[in-house]
Write a sequence for this structure.
């Protein structure tokens, strides 16, 4: 065995002297592609390529500037094989008191030209019929019975800084920073942190905040989404060409796909059959909502406005509470007006005019609205009263005509919101209705 090793060592040394490409020093360290070799301790790692290596690395590969791949592993397994294949398997059983044990660590330098992108980890999946195709897989194992010992995330993303957070739970995915989904997001439930211990400056909304009036002024619309496009870089086109190269087993990628003239072509953001594009949608216009509740509208990093629909729900709840309080107050005679049934006056041989109050038109209104009513001929005194939602009388109109008549309400002197109006005849309330003023 020693003779074989010495023979290999002598051959490797001869090769090293001859072309300075393969080096094996006296300690058994091996180097490939080493151009200079002066002393026996030049190699620092057990195995190196194109470099002397590092003392803290068993193997070290230094890619040359013209190299496209630092390490390229191709799967030789045929499609008829039934066994699994792993191109690169890293398994570590290191136990540390502090720090991290990395399975694979990728560090990409920043900078470069405007046409160069950086990718820390890139995963591209093929296709199969067993429905198990994944570009990147992260699995958080649980090896102990103590929950605190297995906290963490299968996939962790941090777009704010380089910190690795200490997580207080187990998550399939944990993202620290803005997260965007361009397609349909499906979830069993969506929750928002709302613990009392996480809040300050707490104040209950009241009727004076005008939640109901602001809610009524929101413009609900039906719309379709526009298709969005972005510029496909030369790097993306080169990746597509590489995929074709791997599938075809060719030696060179198609030059057309790598041609710089074909770079920066338009690529659609959404698939044409995506529900985002083909379906009708319903919602609010962010610019309109911004005038009513500016805190519910945020500007995304791409410059477009977005609506926080979840926080509209508490405003809906508050508006329902206001309507319920108004209904209870009316039923309990807390307001100075009450509903009464319309009176009728009989006349011999003809139908008498029935005193009636009609719904205002238009409703809602922005400038003015018309309130019609019928007043019987035998009515002595008829008045139309306007009340706010607190039951306070804010206007009174005396009706002197009998039969069909009307009163015009000017909204210029009123604040946007909901109001009550009542027709009172000879001390009795004939009817009460609501009207809404918007801006």
């Amino acid at each position: 065995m020693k003779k074989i090793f010495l023979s290999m060592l002598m051959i490797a040394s001869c090769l090293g002297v001859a072309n300075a490409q393969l080096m094996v020093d006296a300690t058994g360290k091996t180097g490939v592609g080493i151009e200079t070799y002066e002393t026996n301790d030049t190699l620092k790692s057990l195995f190196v390529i194109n470099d002397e290596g590092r003392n803290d690395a068993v193997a070290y590969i230094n890619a040359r500037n013209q190299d496209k791949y630092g390490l390229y592993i191709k799967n030789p397994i045929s499609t008829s094989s039934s066994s699994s294949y792993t191109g690169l398997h890293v398994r570590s059983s290191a136990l540390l008191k502090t720090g991290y044990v990395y399975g694979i660590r990728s560090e990409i330098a920043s900078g470069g030209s405007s046409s160069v992108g950086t990718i820390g980890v890139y995963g591209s999946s093929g296709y199969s019929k067993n429905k198990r195709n994944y570009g990147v897989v992260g699995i958080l194992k649980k090896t102990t019975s103590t929950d605190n010992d297995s906290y963490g995330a299968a996939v962790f993303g941090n777009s704010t800084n380089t910190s690795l957070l200490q997580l207080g739970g187990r998550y399939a995915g944990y993202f620290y920073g803005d997260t965007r989904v361009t397609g349909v997001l499906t979830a069993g439930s969506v929750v928002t942190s709302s613990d009392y211990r996480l809040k300050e400056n707490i104040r209950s909304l009241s009727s004076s905040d005008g939640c109901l009036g602001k809610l009524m002024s929101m413009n609900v619309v039906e719309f379709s989404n526009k298709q969005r496009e972005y510029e496909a870089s030369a790097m993306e086109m080169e990746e597509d060409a590489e995929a074709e190269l791997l599938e075809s087993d060719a030696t060179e990628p198609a030059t057309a796909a790598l041609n710089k003239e074909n770079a920066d072509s338009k690529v659609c953001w959404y698939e044409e059959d995506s529900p985002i594009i083909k379906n009708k949608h319903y919602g609010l216009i962010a610019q309109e909502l911004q005038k009513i509740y500016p805190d519910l509208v945020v500007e995304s990093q791409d410059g477009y406005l977005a609506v926080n629909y979840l926080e509209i729900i508490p405003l809906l709840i508050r508006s329902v509470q206001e309507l319920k309080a108004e209904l209870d107050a009316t039923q309990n005679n807390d307001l100075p007006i009450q509903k009464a049934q319309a009176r009728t006056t009989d006349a011999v041989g003809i139908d008498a005019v029935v005193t009636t109050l009609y719904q205002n038109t238009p409703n809602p209104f922005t400038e003015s609205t018309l309130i019609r009513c019928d007043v019987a001929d035998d009515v002595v005194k008829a008045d139309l009263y306007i009340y706010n939602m607190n039951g306070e009388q804010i206007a009174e109109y005396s009706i002197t005509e009998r039969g069909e008549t009307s009163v015009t309400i000017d909204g210029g002197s009123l604040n946007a919101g909901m109001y009550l109006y009542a027709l009172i005849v000879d001390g009795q309330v004939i009817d009460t209705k609501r009207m809404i003023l918007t801006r």
About this structure: The longest helix spans residues 312-331. DSSP finds seven helices and 19 strands in the chain. The radius of gyration is 39 Å. Residues 1-19, 251-263, 334-350 have pLDDT under 50 and may be disordered.
